[in-house]
Amino acid sequence: MINIEDEIRCFVMNSIDLSVDISDEEILKLIRNKIIEISRNQPISLADRKRIEGHVFNSLRKLDVLEDLLKDEEITEIMINGPDDIFIERNGRVEKSTESFSSEEKLNDVIQSIVANSNKIVNEQNPIVDTRLSDGSRVNIVLPPAAVDYSILSIRKFPKEQMTMDRLESYGSISKEQIDFLKKLVISGYNIFVSGGTGSGKTSFLNALGEFIPQDERVITIEDSAELQLKNVQNLVRLEARNANLEGKNEITIRDLLKSSLRMRPDRIVVGECRGAEALEMLQAFNTGHDGSLSTGHSNSCRDMLSRLETMVLMGAEIPLPAIRQQIASGIDIIVQLGRLRDKSRKLLEIAEVLELEENEIKLNPLYQFQEKEEVEGRIIGEWKKVGDLKRKEKLTASGITL
Question: What is the pTM of this model?
Fold first, then answer.
């Protein structure tokens, strides 16, 4: 089939006038006519005709083989290590795809098309870029020389339906008791930090928490690539960072956006992900009256997240460690730890309360923990245990809410 596709692709390219605009319908007509002509000498089934037509059209007008992969709702991640090396994650398991790009040049064309649509630049001088597709899917691109063999393209697909707590409960990722608990904390204005490893569902969980934010509040979201969908919020401002241009100028960092957001009269600030020096501004925002703010970060446990935050703050400023710990203890009220278990399921593993400093160490108060009971046919069965009671109840009391 690949030979037929190449033949049709060459025929169409030679048949169109590149100096004028040509519609999708005209391209499709040329492809169909050529398929009919070839089928007179070589039988082609109806299913193969449709597949060939789709492949050729996508390679000429859209994102080539990516189109079919993006339309497959079972696929959650697409990892392209080169034109013939495509891996996909389906239902939590990674497998190699049978699809491939027609050439390395076509892969690079697709990459440039994706980047151009989001007004970003990727080239040898700036070989690494984070961006997004029109549907919100997260895209990471690495070009040579940073990528040794081929251009690398990684896509975290954006779910068609917004993630909600009800859906997370139906997946077995969280319990009803925890949902009710977190709802009261969000409404009361507790600052919540969501932590977890790669692919543990931090952004989806943040979206789900957003449904509890009162509608009359002004919320500002700050992200590397805009992914959050807080559809319940009416007074919403979405800010997105920007890479430097070819001259190395006009960069807009998350730190810049955080500083600017403080002058926009926000009730809450949501930082999509803390990765580096912006952690200092994030903590300052949490400590300057913006109760109910949210953020996420990478870590293996609630305790580990505190250490990572200390390191991130030190990346941006030389501040004594006791002062950093005081900022963390004052700014963050709750840490929610997410994880991915060995059966590939995503679960809330722990909710912990951040308490005051004690002997120069931040004290944690575990509230809920997931405890594994058994494994049935490769699926982990467990339950959430309440292991502690919330100690800081001032915000709940001020909001007139009781647990």
Answer: 0.79
